[in-house]
Amino acid sequence: xxxxxxxxxxxxxxxxxxxxxxxxxxxxxxxxxxxxxxxxxxxxxxxxxxxxxxxxxxxxxxxxxxxxxxxxxxxxxxxxxxxxxxxxxxxxxxxxxxxxxxxxxxxxxxxxxxxxxxxxxxxxxxxxxxxxxxxxxxxxxxxxxxxxxxxxxxxxxxxxxxxxxxxxxxxxxxxxxxxxxxxxxxxxxxxxxxxxxxxxxxxxxxxxxxxxxxxxxxxxxxxxxxxxxxxxxxxxxxxxxxxxxxxxxxxxxxxxxxxxxxxxxxxxxxxxxxxxxxxxxxxxxxxxxxxxxxxxxxxxxxxxxxxxxxxxxxxxxxxxxxxxxxxxxxxxxxxxxxxxxxxxxxxxxxxxxxxxxxxxxxxxxxxxxxxxxxxxxxxxxxxxxxxxxxxxxxxxxxxxxxxxxxxxxxxxxxxxxxxxxxxxxxxxxxx
Length: 431
Description:
By secondary structure, this protein is an alpha+beta fold. Helix content is 43%, strand content 15%. It contains eleven helices and 14 strands. The strands form four sheets. Strands 9-8-7-10-11 form a five-stranded mixed sheet. The protein has a three-stranded antiparallel sheet with strand order 1-5-6. Strands 2-3-4 form a three-stranded antiparallel sheet, with no helix packed on it. β7 and β8 form a beta hairpin. It is globular, with a radius of gyration of 27 Å.
């Protein structure tokens, strides 16, 4: 911590470590800088989890402020507690990436063989002043620092572009504040009761079932190859591995599936941003342990839930189009009856109010609760779920007894389900 990439680079040049890389200086220097950026990103991600742990500590406000200050100034190694928590949450290990390299913007050139034709790129090779030319399948010229990745016999050229130049950045956002509930059967359900990307559940489940069946068949073939190898029939074992246990088709199908999921997710997020300039979403960054046993097939399908892609789409699209995303605590948002603090009974995609018997669509109710939680002074982003449940039960108890929620508020009706149009939708259970 506190060491810059230039310090390491100079040290390697002095002690001769750089001589064993076998590439030109500019190539490995840029790659070292990129590796340091990844380490910094992992460290910052760990700080988010450490801040949550600090917020739950039963210490004084001054002590919490001191710990937060040490984290912000990268001086957490001075405190034993922060050092222990950073070691717990920080990603670490040996990086085995050997198929890519970073090329600086002034170390390559682009050209075309014919006017309007595809772009060719010339990058430095292993020999000084010897460029390697690579034909690209696009007419768009890459700019800035490049990352070259060798994958499946092909060269991938990755580079960053300005979001303002993208067509989607020119689309205006809405003017409302909307809460969204992330789901498995659909990408998002908003507080207006509209479901976006309803094909997601079928797309995830079908691919998960296909991978299960395919994996079972591959396991049998792998067992046959191992059995043949044990009895000395190495030719048969090699034929099975060459012709039946490859990964080219599997990766091709996986990439196509990922593209379909991302396309569906980003279209759903764009539909929400079309009518909202403030999007309130639940924070699902951490895992949630469930006491309910769903079965191995349900657990396998839920493991394929692409909530990370949904979070990425919300952040990316909102940043391009000028809207804001606010994250709130996700605890009990799909179990509380909207406009009240009553914990209803959840059955699949339906939420039953225990006071009046009204039936809510669970995802719609969750989106409404998420929107309201943005202005909740008692439930913050890092409030433990046990404390959230306690707060909801206390509020419901005060309403039943006729006491005001606070000194400035008046007694209100316990159940107000009739003030909102209740929407039902037939579908499979979402979460």
